[in-house]
Amino acid sequence: xxxxxxxxxxxxxxxxxxxxxxxxxxxxxxxxxxxxxxxxxxxxxxxxxxxxxxxxxxxxxxxxxxxxxxxxxxxxxxxxxxxxxxxxxxxxxxxxxxxxxxxxxxxxxxxxxxxxxxxxxxxxxxxxxxxxxxxxxxxxxxxxxxxxxxxxxxxxxxxxxxxxxxxxxxxxxxxxxxxxxxxxxxxxxxxxxxxxxxxxxxxxxxxxxxxxxxxxxxxxxxxxxxxxxxxxxxxxxxxxxx
Length: 242
What we know:
globular; 2 domains; alpha+beta; disordered N terminus
């Protein structure tokens, strides 16, 4: 074989090998999607090293150890290219397998940049202080039903931003506050029914007119200082006898 033919043959093999080599795989959806969930809403913050917003095809993934427990894919039709809404799935204590984190266990985040086929660690940033935050899972059980008359999402959610280039934080750990114990009878009629859950939802959407201060106070069923979907879930779990 002449030198020129040999060079062309080697070049062809090299190009073929490049074409056959798999690209860095994008993140896959969570393998275990349990009823223990929470949602994180925020934006990707610009930095000197990463000033541009995410591009369509980029992804943000949540990891428990090396397992993906949440995934958000950025698209071209979202209003804010930096915004994300990522749902995290935790461990179901009623099963023997470990599907994800328990409440209080650490979760990390990674960003996939499709243009450069690279994965970058993402640091959780607390919106109020702008400081790094040691993120831990704080999800709860989402009941398998909805409210057809009220489009309320029962997945508990928190607001945090992300900054690329770091993985650890030095702030709080995302835990909730304490209380005197749950009081499921929100309307004070001596029973715990769907009406109590409906009152909590009414307060969640801001329809407080005509409600007494006692009812509004009792709507914080779990005593964590916030009236949200966790209180609705607590009522339904109590009704079911969980």
